[in-house]
Amino acid sequence: xxxxxxxxxxxxxxxxxxxxxxxxxxxxxxxxxxxxxxxxxxxxxxxxxxxxxxxxxxxxxxxxxxxxxxxxxxxxxxxxxxxxxxxxxxxxxxxxxxxxxxxxxxxxxxxxxxxxxxxxxxxxxxxxxxxxxxxxxxxxxxxxxxxxxxxxxxxxxxxxxxxxxxxxxxxxxxxxxxxxxxxxxxxxxxxxxxxxxxxxxxxxxxxxxxxxxxxxxxxxxxxxxxxxxxxxxxxxxxxxxxxxxxxxxxxxxxxxxxxxxxxxxxxxxxxxxxxxxxxxxxxxxxxxxxxxxxxxxxxxxxxxxxxxxxxxxxxxxxxx
Length: 320
Hints:
Blueprint: H1 26-31, E1 50-65, E2 71-84, H2 94-103, H3 110-123, E3 129-142, E4 149-163, E5 166-180, H4 182-195, E6 203-214, H5 222-232, H6 243-255, H7 260-272, E7 277-286, E8 295-301
Antiparallel strand pairs: 1-2, 2-3, 3-4, 4-5, 5-6, 6-7, 7-8
Helix pairs in contact: 2-3, 5-7
């Protein structure tokens, strides 16, 4: 008995030339395969819900308002994610970018960010959604004694999170400062007083990441959080420095020696005093000049930032 051969469909002869004149109509668009919206039978692996799926480091220029009433346009890295139910294959990620572009020409405000979140949450039919915008914010900073000034840049991230019907507005600010070890300072003074030996305490460039939940209708400016950091730990690293500024910075450090435990508590004290701030987290890393390791500390207030397990990169991600 002769085995029947399967029927084959002949492909048309293929043309190796891009057709710049081809135009897509709705019928053709509807005929395109869409695997991300395919049936649940196409799901690979465990049929489990996914908490975050989306895009990261999508960059575009965004215009921000300044506390003084001006505007500044900054390159911004956007991360947008939604939750995905267990029986859904995937999402159309380009919808997140398209939703954000609709609002990208507006002067930034949290209401604009929330509108973008609402749009792509609706487009993707998701229960939970998050959007995060990261940029480097410049502020003009004066020197300590010489009268010079220069631009200091602060890594700022704004985040809107909707989960289980609750919406959070979060700001993250990185603050870089110098930390003089109080123990080393006392030991140096002991060597001078008891043995007449010149000794210098060790200091190191340090960084704190301040994360706050913004509450209430009143705006919390980036500049205000930075001001809180300066009041808590005044030894911010300098931009423009002459000899008199370098001497002043040495004096400022000697007047404000600080362990990493002191630093997170000092930042927390400033945050607790502002009614616009709810839950918060302070992560600090003193990147030691004495030791070959860093000294680190983490302080949280409220349930938003509580965590039993630390991401292995929590402290390593703090770059001074």
